[in-house]
Write a structure and sequence with these properties.
With 148 residues, this protein is α+β, with helices and mostly antiparallel strands. It is 18% helix and 16% strand. The chain has a four-stranded antiparallel sheet, with helices on one face. The longest helix is centred in the middle third of the chain and has 13 residues, at 69-81. It is globular and about 40 Å long.
Length: 148
C-alpha cells in the first residue's frame, strides 16, 4: 500500500477508491447485514484490531455453516475486526481487506453478507490473491467478482 498510495480515487469510479490506511468505508458504520446471523449486532463503530490474528485460512460461508452461536459468533466478529486493514468497498456490505497478521498475511479477502473469501486472480486460481494482483485488477475494473 505504501508504494501505491495511502488512499487514492484511482480505480473503478463507483467504488470510492482505495482507502487511506486506518479509514473505514462510508457505509461501514451503518451496515446492517442480511446474513450476519450473530446475536450480537455488527458494530461498525468498534475499534478494529489489525494486530490480532486474522481468524480464517479458507473461505467461510456462514450463511450455510453457522449453527452454533457459542462457536461462530466470536469468529464472525473477529473476521471483520481482527488482523486486516480495510482497502475499500464495492457497495455497502461488500468490503475488501488486506490481511496483515496470521497465516493469510499479504492476501486480500472479500467480506460480504454471508461469506468471507480470499481473492484470487480467477476462481480456480487460489495461489494468487496478494495485494499486488488485487490492486492491479481493481484499478482496471476487472476480476472474478465482476460479471464478465
Amino acid at each position: 500500500m505504501t508504494e501505491i498510495a495511502n488512499g487514492t480515487d484511482d480505480g473503478p469510479p463507483d467504488e470510492g477508491g482505495l482507502l487511506p490506511l486506518g479509514e473505514k468505508p462510508d457505509g461501514w458504520a451503518l451496515w446492517e447485514a442480511d446474513c450476519w446471523m450473530s446475536p450480537e449486532p455488527f458494530d461498525g463503530a468498534a475499534v478494529r484490531l489489525p494486530g490480532r490474528p486474522f481468524p480464517l485460512e479458507e473461505e467461510w460461508q456462514w450463511e450455510y455453516e453457522y449453527y452454533d452461536h457459542t462457536r461462530h459468533s466470536s469468529l464472525l466478529h473477529q473476521t471483520y475486526q481482527h488482523g486486516s486493514v480495510l482497502l475499500g468497498s464495492d457497495r455497502p456490505g461488500e468490503y475488501w481487506t488486506l490481511v496483515v497478521t496470521g497465516p493469510q498475511r499479504g492476501r486480500v479477502w472479500w467480506l460480504r453478507d454471508g461469506c468471507a473469501a480470499p481473492y484470487a486472480d480467477r476462481p480456480s486460481d487460489q495461489p494468487g490473491g496478494d495485494f499486488l494482483h488485487w490492486v492491479r485488477d481493481w484499478h482496471v475494473g476487472q476480476g472474478w467478482w465482476r460479471a464478465e
